[in-house]
Each structure stands twice: as structure tokens, then as C-alpha cells.
Recover the amino acids of this structure.
């Protein structure tokens, strides 16, 4: 052990660090336990490590150069945890999973950073609010999700998909666009992809945020009767 290490050791400062890290560990464990119980991607150990790591870096910054250093360290903690949170976000088709867990890691880092800055009360309050967001708000979210979906007021994207033979593609595309124009639906974009050697898929995305399902049903039913068309349908998906 070097002389500098012996000189820098201060019992009071060491006790202060121990309190900060212990607080961060307890709060991170509490936040992570809820995630672990729900079998999320980032669970108890991840949340606890994020909180302790944030607390350790902020505490070291304060020991070396006071509050100014702690502020700089906190800025790097925020960006670093952002990259860590991106690792738990997964895209499955049109669905995105892990956003809530990533946000929870940010909350865990915030609680740890506050503990490292000797703001113990604030760290506890942050952890309580993170836990409340993940537990107390769940019944409200479930209730909202159970409400019937109103296509007229929900921001959504409407897409029509037609499977057609390559020979009939120009005729079918023209007929579809004509019918959409007759119903005053603006088209945001079209795309053609090869399905098989004998068929193509035409995807048409509407520009409006709402549409009338009955009219879309009429359009795809009419298009489905055209020569060369194997399949015609439409779908709505809410905005991300």
C-alpha cells in the first residue's frame, strides 16, 4: 500500500462513501426486485449494479473535486445509462419491448447518483416514484388498454396490401389508387415487394391518421375481384 493511499484514507469520508453506496444498493435492489418479479430483461442485479455504479462514480467525483466534478460525472452517467438501456430494447415486428425496463434503469441510475451526491432523502424519493410508476400506475394502464379503440380519434397508420401477379400489377395498382382517390384518401407511399416467382405484394400507406373501416372494406373487396389478385386486405396500427 502506497503512502498516498494511506494519506488519502479518511475514516469520516470512508463512512460517508459507505452510506452512499449502501443506500444506492438498497434502492437499486428494491427497484430491480419489481422488474425481476415480472421477469423483465433487466432484473434485480442489473438495477442494483446501475444504482451502485452511478453512486460510486458520483461519490468519487465529489471526493476528488467537489460538487463541480460530481455534476460532470452525472452528465456522463446519464448518457452511459442511455446506451445500457438501449441494450434491453427489442423490436419484434411492429412491436417494441423493453422501453419501460430501459426507463427503469434510468430511474435506478438517478437514485444511485443522488445517493452518491449525499442526497439520501432525494434518492429515496426518486426510488419511491420509480416503484410507483411501475406498480401503482399498472391498474390505470390496464384500464385504458381495455377501452374500445376508436379509429376516428386514435392516431394510426392505415395500410392496404394486395398480392397480385406481375402481369396485372399495373392495372391493379391504378385501380386501387383510383378508388382511394374517389374516397378522398391521400396516399403517403407505395411499395412493391416480390412474394414468390409468380406474385408481387403491393403495399399502399395512407397519409391520413384516420379512415373509415367500412370504406376500406369496400375498396379491398372490389380490388380482390380483379384478375390476377390473390389477396387483398387492410390493417391499422397505432403510432409508436
Amino acid at each position: 500500500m502506497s503512502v498516498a493511499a494511506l494519506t488519502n484514507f479518511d475514516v469520516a469520508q470512508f463512512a460517508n462513501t459507505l452510506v452512499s453506496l449502501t443506500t444506492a444498493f438498497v434502492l437499486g435492489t428494491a427497484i430491480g426486485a419489481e422488474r425481476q418479479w415480472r421477469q423483465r430483461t433487466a432484473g434485480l442485479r442489473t438495477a442494483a449494479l446501475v444504482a451502485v455504479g452511478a453512486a460510486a462514480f458520483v461519490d468519487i467525483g465529489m471526493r476528488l473535486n467537489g460538487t463541480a466534478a460530481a455534476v460532470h460525472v452525472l452528465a456522463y452517467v446519464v448518457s452511459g445509462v442511455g446506451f445500457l438501456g438501449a441494450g434491453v430494447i427489442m423490436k419484434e415486428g411492429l412491436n417494441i419491448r423493453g422501453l419501460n425496463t430501459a426507463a427503469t434503469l434510468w430511474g435506478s441510475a438517478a437514485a444511485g447518483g443522488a445517493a452518491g451526491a449525499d442526497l439520501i432523502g432525494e434518492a429515496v424519493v426518486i426510488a419511491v416514484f420509480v416503484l410507483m410508476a411501475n406498480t401503482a400506475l399498472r391498474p390505470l394502464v390496464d384500464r385504458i388498454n381495455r377501452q374500445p379503440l376508436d379509429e376516428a380519434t386514435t392516431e394510426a397508420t392505415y395500410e392496404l396490401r394486395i398480392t397480385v401477379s406481375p402481369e396485372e400489377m399495373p392495372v391493379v395498382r391504378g385501380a386501387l389508387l383510383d378508388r382511394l382517390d374517389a374516397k378522398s384518401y391521400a396516399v403517403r407511399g407505395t411499395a412493391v415487394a416480390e412474394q414468390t416467382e409468380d406474385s408481387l405484394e403491393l403495399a399502399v400507406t395512407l397519409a391520413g391518421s384516420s379512415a373509415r373501416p367500412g370504406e376500406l372494406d369496400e375498396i379491398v373487396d372490389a380490388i380482390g375481384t380483379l384478375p390476377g389478385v390473390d389477396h387483398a386486405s387492410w390493417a391499422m396500427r397505432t403510432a409508436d
Summary: The chain has a mean pLDDT of 84. The beta strands are 90-92, 95-97, 156-164, 187-196, 199-206, 229-238. The first helix runs from residue 3 to 8.
